[in-house]
Structure formats: structure tokens, C-alpha cells
């Protein structure tokens, strides 16, 4: 029977190759069901078996048929699965939403304990190759229940930490002592790679919610946690060293070390008592109860004067020009957008920056205009101009979306709630905003002749369209001529 | 028949694994045709069927044979395809000309209308993995007929625009107005990513030819065009937004918007009237007809004083040290080489820069010396030194070639025409030129002992070879001893 | 029989898909051996064949069985190979030692002649994807026998050259002459990309050993050698140009050129006479015999004052802040560690830098603590904290190891010899050292409450562990309580 195997190999290879050239595959499949010589042969042989009784023959013929059916089913199934697979690939290539990340689907849980969790957004390039430019950024969300302790660790990544909700104490190990920093919502701080840190949720009732942007310094797009102090859970990094090494380094007998590294078993986020929380408060400066140590977060975006504000929304930016040198070195900007309910941002794009946006609060809607992400691009002749398709998503707290440079987009608050979005804008050097509606938009800034040529339409008519005095934020309402017909976006 | 499938699975997996270890595959294939027990069995069974007539038996035996042949054919075919596939891979690895790009073969047409075209050079890494270092540069050529309008768009890339031929007006949207710049041949300008721009060929007769070096800011090696103003062709990016959003943003009823975005249908490059051309001219400064607005291109390389010039050629360089800070930031230099007919550049290489060269005019010849690009490299033992092979190409206008750092090369003008080459030199920081012939070449700069040791030849003899007083450009003629025998390079 | 092929295709595709969804595969395999309808059918058919003699039937039944066994064997084999393959992949993913490079296994020989050899460490990413961050660094070791000449060449890479052992003369071609530099052990020098250089082992007896860190400027992770002057071996880069070009460029008849490029046949490293060695010595300054030209290496690390030193070890650092601007531009630091016999470095990690370490002399032991490199990481739910495993290796001269940032590690000298390690530290900007033992370690710097919480252990007990006054280097000895029981690390 070894030959059978060899022949099967031949067949297998033949089809592997056929598979590679899809054309051949297609051809074979077309004729697949039309005629089936094997079935004919099978039935013929049943008839030929002279020694068969009529009953034998029927059984034999039925076997032929069932074999045939079985195989057809396989072909069908294969075709279906093939198609599904193909569709998946297709989707991957032309993922309708390469820029929108769902809270449940696109995050993975790194840590989950009684006390809280750390969830990490998937690698941007796992979502889409189009996000290659921001491959080395990773977003993580830390959630900690009231009065919990997030145990000491360091990362092989620069960390930009933003306090979304709740009130934290951050402990950072510096040289020979621990610096303690109280954090309030809106506080942002840069933690250099490798710095051991711990976090306390100092609030007795409220959950603590932190966004952490990681910029790995070792392997691009990959960061790890290292628990220095710890035990069995979280496991201490020291547990990897042999006892000899540990004993020699720490000058402590094995028995004592075993006890030390065997105590901690509560996981990396756990509940602590009110007394412990108090004891962890900064003490340096005179202060009121419970935490009065001057906040040392590098800045608080909520308390900063907005860059732009009108009745429909507010934009606050903290960027390289504005403040700390680390923002410049990381080529980063933090922005906070608060869109009033029933209002919208203008249609606009960034020239250089990629926006990594996290919906903090409220509900709303997002639309991005994208050049088709099909295989159109470079290799094929496409005599005309590209076409654009809409990426849209309903926004709710916890969702993340990315807007690449050059791509016009718009965000709209729902009827009932303001929409609050916090953005890490990366590659922000030289960035400018260009708008399509409101004061100083692209169309109104074009000279009249170019306008007429571009639209093939009299410039007075074009001008009629693009005139409105507000900029950046507008009410989301139909033009007066159309009121009453307003539908949901 | 489900078992059959299971068994086939077993067989399939077995061979998949066999396939993985090529050795096993090799072994199996060797014995494949030698003896075929299945054929023997098949024929044996034909004979065994006692109830068969002689005719039945013949048919049966023929079936066995045809089965056998079918399978042999499959094996052959598979082997052939396998070999072809292998050869392809092989060719890919050792592409004889990874550095030369043909005007027809290696460009793809992004836009082609009555008015003109935009062609984009393939991604450098699509040509060869060796070009990975310049992956994020893309070269595009815009050609526009006399009196045409290239409609407004922006790119998600930094653009370095060089006016090769013809006379353009460039409109750049800045803040609240459009800046207009007249371009002449030799003008170069940097357009920051995201800036909306339009282009006019203001010449009544001559074609406009622009080279655009794109440096993508979003996805590495990939850039897109976004038509802000537009209609159906070019399609406006605004077309991707829902009517609600557009109506709310532009405060214009749907009907009016539909009309506006339905007019433009002429494509993205189209013919315009002389009056329109005039109306698009810069008007700021007093000027003569037809365009007198002061040229604001950052510089004109044709009007710059050459860095080096002799009777055989001329080299003009504009680099970071020389002029604008954006050249420094983009780590870029522009050079223009004009080699006199029957002349040549010296054999030389750049220490750091990669040269992306575009033949502007004339004909000539290129030779580059390359370390073998085979799999020689790192994994195998190759006890001796590398060997070098010649990459050569006949040059004509429209061709592009790349010269990586460290690789010695030479360009030669034809007998009848000067050879004009414009180069974007990238990664230019710290770059130096090293030559192998002419004044101060590598060999003549070596001390005599090293020279003798290197060539294993008396240094007087070596010195005899490398002495000539010219540098950079020479006549392309044989040494006096050899005149009359001159052949085509 | 063509149908058969088609059916096989169907089956093959079906299983390919089944394969993709491992679940399905698992299911199929479970039931594989349990019942085999095909065997039943086969045997049934043997019995049915009424015309068969009893002997025929036995043969037939035996064939069924042997077919069955054959297939089972295939399944087994396939399963085994599958497992092996899986294990391999597993190993690849979890390579137990992605950071340790053996002198024989992980280097390839680029050049090997009578006079010496050049060995190049494999690309870091070939060893492990985790090393992607240092992909563009390549380490080479040059070994040259006494009184040899390493013939002139240039590289398409920045080269940082470190003289490990022996005494060299380095010739660098600058503008119109050759600069000569004498090198002593500990000397380090930066050679800009493209600079032609030759090397002389000026010692009559001792071998010369140089480490060269290459930072490619053309294709990332890939560098090439170019022999300008040369002949047949090493082959001159000029050999790739056509005779016409060479004759025209060098103004020398072909015959003479052929002779010139035909002499050198000794390879790229060869023995030279004492007279030649003397003649290659620097001559500029008055000096004693044999070489007195002032050393111009940018610095000598062995003669620098150590950054830290105690009885157990010595650390010398030369970094961006310390000296030459090229270290800053290359973002590089050189360190030299000399650990006294029976001593160890503290357990510590770098915050930003990746250490590429070369064992120069002595023997010892290395341990690194690594977060598990399994597929754990991002996509799966792993409710608890990561676990760490030990990477360990016995060190001997010629071995290379890498320590990524954030990873705690320790090096220990053997009982008999000091351990001498030279390190290229890359990505060194902002780097800090954090220690787990000795003065100012992470644990002792934590405030007491955090310490107690982290270890779940009274802080007095924790403090008892981490108190020792030395820093950086300690004796490698068990705590006094445990002496006498000391085992090999």
C-alpha cells in the first residue's frame, strides 16, 4: 500500500500547485459535479458482479450513491468554507473598519483579579497593515476597584499615564526613595521606561480608570511587565534566578527567601484597608486629610484653558510647544474634546498626526472618509481618481478609534449627552488642522477660479455652500430649509 | 466513506510533513516511477475477475494503464511547476537588475485623463529587498498637456516637487488664502504633508513634467490622494459622509449639495481655456504678462552655481548645508548632473547617501559594481572574499535608477547627446564621495606599501595606472595606446 | 481516473480547512482509530467474493489488514512528526536561549585565509524576533595572525572597532592621504561608513583580535565589503566594470590593467614580512622603534578611570555624555566589566539600553530573568500575572550575549579566573541602571507600606533581606548561615 501513499503524494502535490494557480483550481471545480466517471464505474461494477443477488446489487448501488453524496457534501462544505475563508481574507484586506476598536472584541485581558483588571488593545498592525505607522504604540486600560493596590512593577516601555476617572496615588521608585504623586482626573504623567511604580486607588467608593500609552523600547510593538517585589502571584522576576544566586546576592538563607517569595498570592491588584491607603498617602508637604501632597502630575488637561471653545464644543490641547520636553521627545500631543450634545466637530483632517482616540464619556457617532483600501492602489491601472468610502461607528465609552493623517473625519455627540474624547496624537511634529466647513476652510480659501474649475460650478454657488461663521464645533442640525426632516446620522 | 476521508487526512498530513522535510520528499520521488505496486495490483485484479469477458479485461487493464499515465503526468507536471516556482524564487533572490527601473514596466498609472497622467514608481521593496532602506520614498511623475488644470488635492505624504520641463503655477492653500507660485524648469519646492494644492500648466504649447518625491507620513511606503473640492470625477472626499452630516456641516440643503457634487466629471487633470490660465496667474506683485509674480520656489537648481564643472561635465548640488532647513529635516539632497557627450563620470561611490536618479534628457550608459546578491551572504561558509558583478543599463529619458551607498558606479553620455540626470539623494547626512579614478582617488591616496600589498604589484606600476589630473568627469576615450579600437561600452 | 484526482482534491481541501480549524482536526483524530468502516467494508468484500478460494480470501483479508496497519503507521508517524514539528515551533517561539550566542554555532565565517578570519554573528532577528529592536546591528570578529595584512576595503556600514587583543596599525584613507593609527588593546575607534581602511597586525608573535560593530547604512541588518584595490582574491570591485570603462577611467591600456588586476591572489588577510610591517608604521611624529606614532584611537577603555570599582569588580563606561559626539549620534555606549574571581555583579537591569556583550576572557555564568516567551502575551486571557523563566549560560571567551532593557540579569565569575566582558550598549539615551540587591536597590527604596503590601510580609522581614552595603559587585558566597553548603551556581 506504500504506492498508494506515493500516488496520493503526487496527487496532493499536483493539487497544491493547482491551488497555487487559482485558475487551475477554478477550472477543476467547474467540472467537478457535472459528470462523475467514478460513480459510473462504481455502478457499472455493481451491475457486473454476476454473483450478486438483486439485494446485493441494490446495497452496492446505494453505497455508490452515498459515497457520491458524501463526496459532494465534502465538495460543498469545502467550497463554503473556502468561500468563508476567502471572505475573511477579503475582509482583512478591505476591513470595513480598520480604524475602530470595540471594547470587548479588540482588547485582551492581561490581568484580572478581584481588585481590578488591565486590558491591552491589540497591536495596531494586527488590526490592519494600514496602521503600520503607529505599530510601536500600545494602549492599555487599568481599572481598579475602590481602595486597591496595584503592586510594584516596571515596564520595558515608556509609559504615558492618563487618569480618566477616580483618584490615585502613584509611587515611583527614584534612586533611593519612592516619590509619591496624587493623581486627579485629567492628570497626565510620563513614566520613563524601567521605572518601578505602584498605584493606589485612594478613593473609598469610586473605581479608578487609567489609560496607559506604552511606547516599547525593546521589541517594537511589544511590552512586558516585570514584578520586582512580589511572590507567587504576582510572581517576582527574582524567582527566575537560582537559589545560589539569590542567596549570594541578597545574603539571606534560602529558607528565609522561600518564605519571602511565598507570601504574596493575591494577584497584582488587590483590596487594601483604609489604614493602608492612608499610610500610602504622600506626606512630604503639610496637607489636609486624606491626601494633600501637592500633585506632581506634569499637567492636568481638564484644568487647562481650552485651545478653542464655543457653545458647541471645547478642544484642549497639550503638545510639544506647550509644555514638557518629554512630549517633544516622544513626538506626542494630548487633546481633550468635549462636544456638546446635539453638536458636531467640523469635517477636518490632521496633516501629520495620527489620532488615537478613547471615548471617555457620552455617546455619539464617527465618520471617516477613506480612499478605498482595495488592491486598487499601486499595481493596477486605474485611469481615474480614487473613490472614497465611509467608515462609520456609533461611539460609546471605552471604544477606541484611530484617525490617520490626511483622512477627513467628523465626530457627533448624541442628543442626550456630551461626547468626551481623550486623544493621544502621535507623530505630531509640524501638524496642522485643515477643515472643510466653517471659518477658513479649504474650499473658501481657494481662489475663485480654482474653485470653479474644481467643482465645475460657478464660484458664487460654491461660496453659498461653505459659508458659516463658526469654526471647529457646530450644532448638529439640518439647514433651516430642511428642518423637521432631520434623521439620525 | 467517512473513513476514507480520515485516511486521506492521515496520508495528507503525512505528506505535508514529508514535504516540510524536503529530504523525505526527495527520497519518495526517487522511487516513484520505478515500480508501482498499485499498478500491479490493479492489473492483477483485472485478471482475477473471473466473471469478466476478455473485452472486460482489456478495458479493465487499459483503465489501469491510463490511471497510471494520468498519475505519471501529474507527477511530471507537478515537478515542472515545482521547478518553475523554484526558479521564480531564485530569480527574485538574484534579480540581475534590482537597481534599474524601466519607464513602462516599473511604473503604474494612477491617473490618466485627456489632460495628462500621474505615474507612480513601484515600491522600492517590491523591486528588491535590498532597497529596504529607502522603502519610505515613492517617486511619481506628473505629465500635463498644455493649458491644463490639475485639480486640488492633498496627500498623506511630504512632497518634494521638482519641475523638470514646462512652466507651472502651483496653488497652495495656506490658512485663509491660496498662495500661488510660478515654477520654471529646475525649480524645487517642498509641500508639507496635508497641504491642499493645485497645479496649472500655464504654457500654451509645451507639456509640463514634474517629478514628485513622496515621503509618506502615515503608512510607510504608501501614500494616497484626497480630493477635497471635486465631484464625481475626481470624486470628492466629502462624498463619503452621509447627507445628514454634510447638510449639518455645510448648512446647505441636500438638493443643492447634490448639484454641487455632481458637476465635476472631467477627471483630475483637464484642459482649460487661456482666459482661465491667465486668471489663475499670481497677481500679488506688479508683473508682466503672462506671469510675473515673483517665483517663490525655494530654489532653482539649473540657475545655481555648479559644485564642480569641467569640459566633460557639471555637477550641481543643493543639500542640507546649503539651503533650506526642510532638506535637513528630510535628510535629503538634490543634485543635477550634466555629462557632456562622449564623456563619463569617474568611478565613485557615496559613503552614506542612496541616489534615486531620474534621467531627464539624453542617452547614455550606467554600470554599478555589486557584491553578489546570491544567498552567499551570511549563513554559508565562503572562505574567500566576495565577488562583484556588473549591473548595467542603457539610459534614456524617463528611466530611474538607484545607487546604494558603498557601491561604485559610473555614468557615461552617448556620442551624440549630453546626459542630464536629476537625483534625489536620501540619507545624505555625513555623506562623502570616494573616487577610483582622477585626482585624490582611493588608490592614489593609499601609501605605497599598502598599495603594493593590496595589488601584489610594484607601486610604481600601480601609480602609473591611477594618474590623471581631471576629477569627477573625464572624456570617455580609450588611452592613447588603444585609440582606434574603441568599442561601444 | 481523473475523477479520483478531483475527489482527492475535494478531500484535500476539506482537510486543509479542517486543519486550519484545529478543533475539527482534533475531533477527527480522536475517532480515527476507534472504528474503521473502510476496514469492515474491505473485509466484507473479501468474504463476498464468491469466486475466491479460501486462500484468495485469506490473502484478501491480509491485504485489508496490512492496508489498515500501513495507514495506522502513517497516522502514528504523522502524529509524531506533527508533534515534533509543533515542538519545534514551540521551541522557536520559546527558544530557551534567544539571548545567548555560541562562538561556533551562531557565527558564520565570511573570510578564512592562511592569515586569519572574519566571522560575523548571525542577524539578531534570525535568532529571535524578540531582538527586532537591535536588528540593524551586526557584530563581526576579526582574527589575524602575527605580521599579517588585512587588505584595503570599505563597508556600507558605520563601523565601531574595538581592539580586544594584540597590536594593530589601522590605515584610513582620508581625502588625499592615508591616516595611520596604532591600536592597543582597549582602543576604540569609529570608522565612518564608506571609508577605505586596511589593518596590520604589527606584532611579531601575538594574534590580533578585533571586535567590529557594524551599523548598516543601506539595507537594514545587512552589510557588505568592497575591495577597491585588489585583484583576483580578494576580487577588486573594479573587476565588475567593462574594459572600456576601466580603460577610459584609468587611461591605461587593457593589457596593463589585466596584469594589475591579476596579481593579488593571496586572499584578503595574508602574512607579510617584518620589513613591510615596519614600513607600514605611522611615521609622522618622532617615535621609538617599532611604532611610536601617537595613538589616535578615540579612547582606550582599559586606561580610563572606572565608573565604579570595589574589590569584587570594576565597571568602566564610555558613553555619549562622556566623550565623542559620534557615540551620541550612534546612540551607543561602550562598557568594560571586570568581575573578580568568585564574585558576581548585582542583580540589575537597564531601563533603555540593550546590552550586546562579548566575553573577552575568563569563565563564568549568566542568568537572565525573562517573562515567558510563549503565546501567552496579548491574544489570550491570562487572568493572573506573567511568570518568569531563567535563561542561563556558562560563559567562556568568544561567547556573545544580549540583555534587553527591563530584564534583570546577573553575571558571575568562576572560582579561578576573573570574568572580562566588553559590551556595546545600544539605544543608550536616558538609560538608567536599577538593582535588586545592594545599596539603593528597588526593594529598599520602596516605602515600607508598599513593601509590605507587595510581599505580603512584614517590612522588617523584607528589610532584613535586602540590606547589604556593597553595590554593583559582591563576593559570590552564600550567606554566613549557609556556608559550607555552597554548590555550583
Walk me through this protein's architecture:
Three copies of one chain form a homotrimer. The first copy, chain A, has 489 residues and is an alpha+beta fold. Among the domains of chain A are: 100-227 and 268-294, Jelly Rolls, CATH 2.60.120; 304-374 and 386-479, Jelly Rolls. The first copy, chain A, has twelve helices and 27 strands. Chain A has helices at residues 2-20, 22-32, 37-48, 54-93, 124-127, 243-250, 254-260, 274-279, 325-329, 442-445, 448-455, 459-466; strands spanning 100-101, 107-113, 116-121, 138-144, 148-155, 157-165, 168-174, 177-183, 187-191, 197-201, 208-216, 225-226, 269-271, 299-300, 308-310, 313-318, 332-339, 343-345, 348-350, 354-361, 364-371, 388-395, 400-403, 409-413, 419-426, 433-435, 473-475. Chain A has a seven-stranded antiparallel beta sheet with strand order 1-23-20-25-17-16-15. A seven-stranded antiparallel beta sheet of chain A has the order 2-3-4-11-6-9-14, with no helix packed on it. In chain A, strands 5, 7, 8, 10, 12 and 13 form a six-stranded antiparallel beta sheet that branches. In chain A, strand 7 (168-174) and strand 8 form a beta hairpin. The longest helix of chain A is centred in the N-terminal third of the chain and has 40 residues, at 54-93. Chains in contact: A-B, A-C, B-C. At the A-B interface, helix 1, helix 4, strand 21, strand 22 and helix 10 of A face helix 1, helix 3, helix 4, strand 2 and strand 5 of B.
Amino acid at each position: 500500500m506504500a504506492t498508494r501513499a506515493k500516488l496520493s503524494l503526487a496527487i496532493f502535490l499536483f493539487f497544491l500547485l493547482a491551488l497555487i494557480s487559482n485558475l487551475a483550481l477554478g477550472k477543476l471545480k467547474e467540472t467537478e459535479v457535472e459528470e462523475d466517471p467514478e460513480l459510473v464505474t462504481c455502478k457499472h461494477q455493481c451491475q457486473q458482479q454476476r454473483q450478486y443477488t438483486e439485494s446485493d446489487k441494490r446495497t452496492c448501488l446505494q453505497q455508490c450513491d452515498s459515497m457520491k453524496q458524501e463526496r459532494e457534501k465534502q465538495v460543498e462544505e469545502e467550497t463554503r468554507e473556502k468561500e468563508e475563508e476567502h471572505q475573511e481574507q477579503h475582509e482583512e484586506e478591505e476591513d470595513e473598519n480598520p480604524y475602530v476598536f470595540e471594547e470587548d472584541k479588540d482588547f485582551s485581558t492581561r490581568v484580572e483579579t478581584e481588585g481590578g483588571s488591565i486590558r491591552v488593545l491589540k497591536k495596531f498592525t494586527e488590526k490592519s497593515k494600514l496602521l503600520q505607522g503607529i505599530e510601536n504604540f500600545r494602549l492599555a486600560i487599568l481599572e481598579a476597584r475602590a481602595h486597591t493596590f496595584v503592586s510594584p512593577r516596571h515596564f520595558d516601555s515608556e509609559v504615558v499615564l492618563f487618569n480618566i476617572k477616580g483618584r490615585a496615588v502613584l509611587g515611583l521608585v527614584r534612586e533611593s526613595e519612592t516619590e509619591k504623586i496624587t493623581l486627579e482626573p485629567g492628570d497626565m504623567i510620563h513614566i520613563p521606561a524601567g521605572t518601578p511604580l505602584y498605584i493606589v486607588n485612594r478613593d473609598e467608593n469610586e473605581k479608578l480608570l487609567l489609560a496607559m500609552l506604552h511606547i516599547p523600547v525593546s521589541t517594537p510593538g511589544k511590552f512586558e511587565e516585570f514584578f520586582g517585589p512580589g511572590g507567587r502571584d504576582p510572581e517576582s522576576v527574582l524567582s527566575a534566578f537560582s537559589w545560589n544566586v539569590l542567596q549570594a546576592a541578597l545574603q539571606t538563607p534560602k529558607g528565609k527567601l522561600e518564605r519571602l517569595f511565598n507570601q504574596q498570592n493575591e494577584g497584582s491588584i488587590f483590596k487594601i484597608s483604609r489604614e493602608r491607603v492612608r499610610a500610602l498617602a504622600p506626606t512630604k508637604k503639610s496637607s489636609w486629610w486624606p491626601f494633600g501632597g501637592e500633585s506632581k502630575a506634569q499637567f492636568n488637561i481638564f484644568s487647562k484653558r481650552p485651545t478653542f471653545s464655543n457653545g458647541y464644543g471645547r478642544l484642549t490641547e497639550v503638545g510639544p510647544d506647550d509644555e514638557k520636553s518629554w512630549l517633544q521627545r516622544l513626538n506626542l500631543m494630548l487633546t481633550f474634546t468635549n462636544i456638546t450634545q446635539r453638536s458636531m466637530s467640523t469635517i477636518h483632517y490632521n496633516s501629520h498626526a495620527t489620532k488615537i482616540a478613547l471615548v471617555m464619556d457620552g455617546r455619539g457617532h464617527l465618520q471617516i472618509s477613506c480612499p478605498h483600501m482595495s488592491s486598487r492602489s499601486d499595481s493596477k491601472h486605474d485611469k481615474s481618481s480614487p473613490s472614497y468610502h465611509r467608515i462609520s461607528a456609533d461611539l460609546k465609552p471605552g471604544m477606541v478609534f484611530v484617525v490617520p493623517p490626511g483622512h477627513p473625519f467628523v465626530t457627533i455627540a448624541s442628543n442626550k449627552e456630551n461626547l468626551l474624547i481623550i486623544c493621544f496624537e502621535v507623530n505630531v511634529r509640524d501638524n496642522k488642522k485643515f477643515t472643510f466647513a466653517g471659518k477658513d476652510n479649504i474650499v473658501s480659501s481657494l481662489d475663485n477660479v480654482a474653485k470653479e474649475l474644481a467643482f465645475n460650478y460657478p464660484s458664487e454657488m460654491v461660496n453659498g455652500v461653505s459659508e458659516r461663521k463658526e469654526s471647529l464645533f457646530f450644532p448638529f442640525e439640518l439647514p433651516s430649509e430642511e428642518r423637521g426632516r432631520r434623521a439620525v446620522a
